[in-house]
Each structure stands twice: as structure tokens, then as C-alpha cells.
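task queued by scheduler; priority normal; single chain, no ligands, no partner chains; default sampling; output format set to C-alpha cells
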Amino acid sequence: MNRVRKILIPVNFSDDSANGLQYAASLAEETQAELVVLHVTQKEEARSFLNFLAVMEGWPMINTPTAIPVDRLVREKALDLYRFIEKVIRNPGRVKIRRKVALGHEEEKILGVAHEENIDLVVLGIQKQSFFPNLVARAKFLKMISRLPCPVVLKPAFGKAWPNLT
């Protein structure tokens, strides 16, 4: 059996991804693997972030489309990722953690990082959804998993049953 050297864990700062991150970190410590924590953001978040800042600082809202510079958005998300990891993994111990922030479509970025980094295992913290969104998401999810170059571990939230995918 091949040794697991790199584990990829995509996070979106939710409780489900925190749960997945905790599991991936314990797995990385057990196997002495490097943990690659990925957060994917989109350009649309730049506009909503700038509007949030405007409201907080009392600026008048302008209906013209404005955008925060992409480099600032990526820096802010990198800081958010650092804080998220620090909050979720209190004592990283012997785990080597590398943080990555990518801009673009989530599925494509996860696949790209998995290929570029020669990832050996992907850990996904999954959420329990209601029936209809689950049907829609299931097809996209299975398509993405089938395109990954390595095995995938699906980690449900603690204390929750596995989602019924049938």
C-alpha cells in the first residue's frame, strides 16, 4: 500500500468543514502527512466585502458596481483561513500545515490543487442537507469525486447520521 504523504482538505469556514479539518489533522498526524488546507473564494465576494466595509464605516452606498482589488480579497481570505485553522486545531503538534487560497470555481480549484500538489488523499467534511438540494448537489459532487486523482474520505459531522443519498 502506498504511503499517504499529502492530504487535501477544502474548507469554507463552516462547522462541517471545521469537523473535516479536525479529522484531516488527526489523520495527518497519525500518518505523518502534510496537510494542505484550501479555501476557494470568488470575485463576487470582493463586491460584497467592499459593500460590507462601506456600511461599517458609514460610507454612502453607491449603485455603481465597485469591487475590492482581488489581491486585497485574497489577503483577507488568507488571514481568515489562518484564523480558522488556529481556532479549529488548537495544538497542531507534529502536523505540517500548508495554507492555500485560490480564486475561482470551487470544484475546478480543488481538482487543480489535487493534481498540482500530487495529493494522496482528499478529506471532505460533508453536511446534512434536505432532500431536494441533496439531489441537485449529489450529481455535481459525484462528478467531482470521480475526477479526483486520489481516494476521497467523506467525513460527516459529529453526532449526525450519514445523509441519506438514496
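post-processing summary
- The chain has one domain: 6-155.
- The mean pLDDT is 79.
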